[in-house]
Structure formats: C-alpha cells, structure tokens
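The data are set out underneath:

___
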Amino acid sequence: MANQRNYDLIDSFFAPDIFDHGAFEGQQQGREGFKKAVAEFFNLFSSLEIKPEVIIADGDMVATRETWKVTMAATNKDLTDEWSKGWEWLGL
C-alpha cells in the first residue's frame, strides 16, 4: 500500500471505525480520516520505500519492524531508519 501509494487498500486492511492512537493534530478518527492522514503524510516524500523486516501478530495486536528509505520532497534529503522509534527521525 505505502510503496505504491495505493491508499484504497486501506479499506481492506482497516475497520471503518479504526481508532488511530497516533493520530495527527486535527485528524478525524475512522477509516476515512486515517486514509486522508496517510496520504498527506506520504506526500511529504518524493520517494518512498518501506521494507517489512519483522511482523508479529497476537489477536488484534500487530507490531512491525521496518526499514524506511525516503527522500523528503521539500529538501530532497535522503533519510533511512531501521528501528522505529516513533516519527522523530523525520525531524518534523
């Protein structure tokens, strides 16, 4: 979904009433709000490649470790992060 920027796939991955605990300020809850936030977030990047390294699921809980390689659209700066620590690595 992310690498291809195919945001319509969110409809098949998330329930209509998804509650995004990491929501951005002013983000509407629910699938449509989540889809809009994801699209706006990924538009920060002129190039984007996300590689899943580890996926662990238990019931309705899922944790992942991913490698992100992105180029910031505003600065043309390449960024890579292998260990997700939140979004601070983006410097936003």
Observations:
- The mean pLDDT is 87.
- The two ends are 23 Å apart (CA to CA).
- The chain is about 15% helix and 35% strand.
- Residues 31 and 64 are 20 Å apart (CA to CA).
